[in-house]
Write a structure and sequence with these properties.
Blueprint lengths: L83 H14 L4
């Protein structure tokens, strides 16, 4: 079933999985559990409990599989980590000590 989902942790394509995602579904690439808050449409870093669903029970582990009945997978769940500062630091070390940048 085509659904354009990607893993919340590594960004791998999840098109091979069928919906609805089951509680124990995992990413074939990084083995991250997928029925997790970080993969849900209601996940929001900027609201209380990091969930926009007002009557959902609070889940403390946002990256662990849970039994939330309001879970709906979010296509844009993957957010690439900010690496520019690390890349600048590596380039500066390479400049100072030689080596690959």
């Amino acid at each position: 079933m085509a659904h354009n989902l990607v893993c919340w942790k590594c960004g791998a394509d999840l098109a091979a999985l069928t919906l609805p995602l089951l509680r124990r579904d995992e990413c074939a690439h990084c083995r991250a559990e997928l029925h997790v808050c970080r993969m849900c449409v209601d996940y929001d870093e900027h609201v209380a409990k990091k969930c926009r669903e007002p009557i959902a029970e609070e889940v403390s582990d946002k990256t662990g599989a849970n039994f939330c009945d309001y879970f709906a997978p979010r296509p844009a769940a993957y957010v690439a980590p900010e690496t520019s500062a690390a890349e600048r630091a590596r380039a500066e070390l390479a400049r100072l000590f030689g080596g690959k940048s």
